[in-house]
């Protein structure tokens, strides 16, 4: 452990990011990549938010545990997060599930992902471990949560959202006393508990935990030998501490990074196609709730070296124009009308096409006369000339993935099926 007790808490902490999940509710968007590696916001990946929060909070020691189809995620981290300098005692370690414990054992739970890397975490010479989910969109100053953890002398501090009690059954929720000490931890209860002084609101877990490493290390070793355990933080470790130790709730509103005092607290789980589409399209609002332009709290990522976006043609029915939209570098908008949409890097669109409230991931090509409404188009897809999606839900559902609210997901295999079956 460190011998500098007066050092800033963030310098004595490792951020351990859990990024191994598939995110199956995102349908075919996670067929080739883990959920944390899914694109977001025009140029970023979902995992960039947890990593950027850690970096902006002063944490320079990070580890990221990967498992499901990790190549895209690992490559992104290598390209976009390789600026740490070992001589300054800073790093981003990538820890794939690698059968370190036995030849037939991968990570079997969120806690097990840390347990299997105990020897590596020991080598970091840290006092505290900040465990993060790598698949949420938010901006948070972790130093505030670390300070609260130390001030309350807690065994674990749990980051919490305040949600309407009527919606809390979808979360792991906490009952707390007046000092925010957790008195019970419940997974998706039918009747969630209210908060002190506000029976209509509930505290829901964000999957963010702070521990003193020496304390967590002992718990993980004991949990490893428990044959009845699921080896999960929310299912096993946190409930045990609530019963036998001191578990403290930390309100996200106390550490949320906002662009103004009046701005709402912003946190999104973009775990469904609908949620993913909406969170991206919301960025086209006049004043979006998520401020990606804040230079004081930037979202770091891998940025390709590409030319500026280009708009060409200016004829009555063939004008390259984007209205209330985000268009990333390297895009060429050639005679296409774009409204309330988000185009990632290197998207090329052709004449007489129209895009409305659609999200196009990198390297998409849109053919002439194509018309896309309320669509999410996966990376690298070639939209054929004349393809119309978003006007006839029943016809779209024959070849494409249509959500309950009418958002259509388009991948290359779907396009190929459409081309063969039309």
From TrEMBL:
Natural source organism: Oceaniovalibus guishaninsula JLT2003
UniProt gene name: glgC
Keyword Nucleotidyltransferase in record: yes
Keyword Transmembrane helix: no
Superkingdom assignment: Bacteria
Catalytic activity: alpha-D-glucose 1-phosphate + ATP + H(+) = ADP-alpha-D-glucose + diphosphate
Protein name: Glucose-1-phosphate adenylyltransferase
Function: Involved in the biosynthesis of ADP-glucose, a building block required for the elongation reactions to produce glycogen. Catalyzes the reaction between ATP and alpha-D-glucose 1-phosphate (G1P) to produce pyrophosphate and ADP-Glc.
Positions that bind alpha-D-glucose 1-phosphate: 107, 172, 187-188, 205
Matching InterPro entries: ADP-Glc_PPase, ADP_Glu_pyroP_CS, GlgC_bac, GlmU/GlgC-like_hexapep, NTP_transferase_dom, Nucleotide-diphossugar_trans, Trimer_LpxA-like_sf
Nucleotidyl transferase domain sequence ranges: 15-284
Alphabetized CDD domains for the sequence: ADP_Glucose_PP (cd02508), LbH_G1P_AT_C (cd04651)
